[in-house]
Amino acid sequence: MSSKNTMKRRDFLKIIGVGTAAVSSVAYTKASEKAPFGMKAFLSPEGTPQMTMRTDAAGEKISLLGYGGMRWPTKQTGGNTRGEIIDQDKVNGLIEYAMKHGINYYDTAPVYHGGQSEHAMGIALSNYPRESFHIATKLSNFDASKWTLENAKEIYENSFKQLGVNYIDFYLLHSVGPGKDSFDQRFVNNGILDFLVSERQKGKIKHLGFSFHGDRESFLHALNSNIKWDFVQIQLNYFDWTQDADNKPSASYMYEELVNRHLPVVVMEPLLGGRLAKLNDKILAELKKRDPELSPASWAFRFVGSLPGVLTTLSGMTYMEHLKEDITVFSPLKAVTDADKNFLQETAVAMMKYPVIPCTGCRYCMPCPFGLDIPANFAYFNKCLEAGNIPASKQSANYVKAREAFLGNFSKSVREKKQSIHCTACGHCLPLCPQHIKIPDQMKRINTLVQNLKNNTL
Questions:
Q1: Which residues pair with 173 in a beta bridge?
Q2: 325 Cβ neighbours under 8 A, 6+ residues apart
Q3: Per-residue pLDDT tens for 292-313?
Q4: In 3D, which of 320, 341, 326, 385 has the Cα closest to residue 359?
Q5: pTM over 0.70
Q6: What is the rounded CA–CA span in Å between residue 439 and residue 449?
Q7: pLDDT tens string 74-89
Q8: Which among 86, 177, 204, 365 is least buried, having the fewest CB atoms inside 10 angstroms?
Q9: What's the rounded Cα separation, in Å, for the pair 229 and 231?
Q10: What domains sit in the chain, N to C, each tagged with a CATH number?
C-alpha cells in the first residue's frame, strides 16, 4: 500500500474526532431542524439496557443495528441438484429474536440469495405490526439491456409483492457507480428517478436513497443530481476509512461529504465481509491486549456506531450466536474513545501488510457460468495469507509446513469443480463486482500458486 493512499494518524483523528459534537446536533434537512440527529440508548421500564436508537427526520426511532438480508441461513434442497434455499424456519427465529431485542431496520434486495431474500424476509416480518419495523430494499437493475422504465417498474412492484407490504420505508438505487454516464443511463434518461420521486410523493416510498460502489466522480454526480435524497448507503469501516486508491473514495471522504450535506448515512460492510471479525493471530493478540473481553467484531461495530450521522449499521447475521453478540454490542453502544480510534487506525495499518483480495463475500458475481465458487476461492486464499500459510518461495523457512497446510485444506474448503483452475476468464463476473476486483486475474493468481505448490516450483 503506497503512502499516498494512507492518511497520517493526525489527519485520521482530526476527521473522526474533532468537531463531532457539532456534527451530532445537525438536522437531516432544513425541514427537520426540530428533530436533531443523535444517539440514545432507550431503557425498558425495569431499567434493562436496550438497543441504541437513532432518530430520523420524521422523528421515528431507527435501531443503530440493522439486519442485512444478504446472508440468510440456507439448507440443501436434496436430490441431484444440490441447490440451496433459504431456511425459512431459521429466518423466522432470527427475526423473532431481533424484533424482541430492538432491531427494527431490515435490509434486502431482489437479487439477494438468487431472488429469495425479499420473500423470506416478508414472511418472517408478516408476524408483526407493519408500523413496528422499517423495510429497505433496492432497484437492482444491473442488466444494461433492460435499463428501461418498464423493467424498473416490474422490479419495483415485485418487491411489494415479495415483501407483502403496501409501502417501503427506505428504497435505494442499487449499487450506483462507477461513472456518471452509467448513473444517467440506468436511472435518469429513462425516467426511472422521476417515477420513484412520484412514488415517494404518493407515500409508497418513505425515504429515497442509493447504495454506492464506485469512483469519486460518480459519487458526486449522484449527490449533485436534481433529486432530493433522504439518505445514502456506503461501505464504511475502520479499514476503509483512509483508503483512497484508484479514484475510489475513502470511507471518511464519503462520510464527511454526506454529513456536510445533512444526509443520514446507512453503513454496509462494517466488518469488511467478515475480515474484521477474523483477524490473524498477531493482530488479534494486540486487540486482546487492549481489552481481552472485546471481540474483533465488536471493535469494528463500535467504531462505526460511534460516528455521528450514521443512521443504522447493517450486519448480515446468519447464525443466532452472531445475532446475539451483535445485539449485545449495540445494547447500548459504548462509544470508542480518541485513544481507541488511534488504536484502530494502527490496526488497519497492520492489516495492510497482507495483500488480500478485497472480496467481501457479497456473491454479486454468482452464479458463475462455469459453476465456480468465486467467493469461496478468495476466502480460502485470504485466510491462508493472513495465517502465514502462503510461502513466498521454496527458500521460506516455513515452506514445507505452509505448503502442506494450503494444499491439504484447499479441496476441503472449495470443492474441486468449483476451484480457480476451471476459470476460463470469460469476464461475466467483472461488471457485477461492487469492489471492482479483476476477478479473472485473481483466480489466475490463486491457480498459479496452487500449481506451483503442487509441482514444488514456487
A1: 139, 210
A2: 295, 297, 298
A3: 999 999 999 999 999 999 999 9
A4: 385
A5: yes
A6: 15
A7: 998 765 444 689 999 9
A8: 204
A9: 6
A10: 3-351 (3.20.20.100), 374-455 (no CATH)
